[in-house]
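Model it.
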Amino acid sequence: MLDRAAAVLDAQPVLEVRDLRVHFDDYDGIVRAVDGVSFQVMPGRTVGIVGESGCGKSVMARSILRIVDRGSRVVGGSVLLRRRSGVEDLMQLEPDSRPMREIRGREIALVFQEPMTSFSPVHTVGSQIIEAVRLHSGSSRAEARREAIRQLEHVGTPHPGYIMEQYAWQLSGGLRQRAMLAMALVGGPSVLIADEPTTALDVTTQAQVLELLHSLQHQSGMALMLITHDFGVVAQIADDVVVMYLGRVVEQGPADAIFHDPRHPYTRALLSSMPSVIAKPRARLATLPGAVPHPLNRPPGCAFHPRCASAIPGRCDRDTPRQSVVQPSHSVNCHLYHEADPT
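Modeled.
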């Protein structure tokens, strides 16, 4: 496992996605679910991957661990994981190979939106966490049980001994999420991918889970990759933001730059549609017109142009925008900024 303290000091990315392309075979053609995505995840920082449903966020996250649905294939790009032994390109590993299985959980852990998809309904929560501990450490069952209880305590689960004997369907959504976090952390991963971890929770429990994620990251120094459609969640926890639309990155940069100086019309539209406590009473909430098209019906040029109020006729509907650097560490893929590109 990566030496986290050293990683923070030398400030090298623990995970780097380069031009990742993932396609699905469909009866009607090829679905370009992830179409050239690139970004970095630094140790000890949280990257918020944000966009509407259908933008390829979850497919991209699962592709990192090679656990996408059957029929998918990686057609290009690389995912570089920085390990103690060196840098490993996960796209060069077979999905079912032993090296890839060792990376899952031990190096990179994944937490799903709904814990019931991760927990078996016919086995107790404790037995499943114990098996996860033994898988990563090879310890005895008694030692694994003690470690499972310790991890449940670590994530703030009340009465962990009692929770160990319960089935997932007997627990509340918040307790299930904490139990799933405990199971994800038993391998001591250097990267935690949280795929919509708060979507199914009420507002109070959502705030508790976000605070827990922030606390766990601060204690361990691990990197956190947070997948969400909610910019409000991103605002609470993210250090860096990657905005995706229809399988591509349209803008990325530090959270402060994204929130205070958004450049892409899609980013601005998402931010303007967020409810505000300072809005005038009964003021109509801004909405984003239209919907994300199916990848098989990808518009030519900039995929966002049919919904964009700033689209340039004859350009946005014809040419795919390239990346423009607008500030250090802040880039945007939009025709509006090509003239300002220093390169």
